[in-house]
């Protein structure tokens, strides 16, 4: 069972991700509703995995990835996005995100990406 943190400004998306984590027998280690909170809580919790929304208030996903990877280069981060902007997704992956998942979610695909990322 992995400790997974979810950072998304949408209550509904956080709930869906919590449900997916429960199905996959993963522990919800914490939640964040904006980029600042995501960095702060990641530092406190140091989860096995962070599910991170690309578009959040206060700090966007790219900034969060860069800040976390600066201090935790081994951090595993899966980017969650409704955007099809491949340029920004590539920037996040280049900055250290492990994978990306597009909204709306396919539960099986999300669980597979989580499993694959945790196995890295």
Coarse morphology: globular
Q: Mean of the pLDDT scores?
A: 94
CATH H level: which superfamily?
Response regulator
Return residue spans where pLDDT drops below 50 for at least 5 consecutive residues.
none
Count of all domains: 1
Helix content: 40-55%
What structural class do the secondary elements suggest? alpha/beta
Q: Write out the strand line-up for the largest beta sheet, numbering strands in chain order.
A: 2-1-3-4-5
- CATH class, named Alpha Beta
Q: Note the total helix count.
A: 5
Give the C-alpha Rg.
13 Å
For the largest beta-sheet, the strand count, sense and barrel status come to: 5 strands, parallel
Q: What fraction strand?
A: 15-25%
Determine the CATH topology. Answer: Rossmann fold
Order of helices and strands, N to C?
EHEHEHEHEH
How many strands?
5
CATH architecture, please?
3-Layer(aba) Sandwich
Distance between the termini: 15 Å
Write up what this structure looks like.
The chain has 120 residues and is α/β, with parallel strands linked by helices. Helices cover 48% and strands 21% of the residues. The chain is built from 5 helices and 5 strands. The protein has a 5-stranded parallel sheet, sandwiched between helices. Helix 3 links the parallel strand 3 and strand 4. It is globular, with a radius of gyration of 13 Å. The model has no long low-confidence stretch (mean pLDDT 94).
């Amino acid at each position: 069972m992995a400790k997974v943190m979810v950072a998304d400004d949408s209550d509904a998306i956080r709930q869906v991700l919590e449900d997916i984590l429960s199905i996959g027998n993963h522990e919800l280690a914490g939640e964040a509703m904006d980029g600042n909170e995501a960095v702060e809580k990641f530092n406190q919790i140091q989860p096995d995995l962070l599910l991170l929304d690309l578009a959040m208030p206060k700090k966007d996903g790219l900034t969060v990835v860069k800040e976390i990877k600066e201090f935790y280069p081994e951090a595993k981060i899966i980017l969650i996005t409704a955007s099809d902007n491949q340029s920004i997704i590539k920037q996040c992956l280049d900055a250290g995100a492990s994978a990306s998942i597009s909204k709306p979610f396919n539960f099986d695909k999300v669980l597979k990406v989580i499993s694959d990322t945790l196995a890295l």
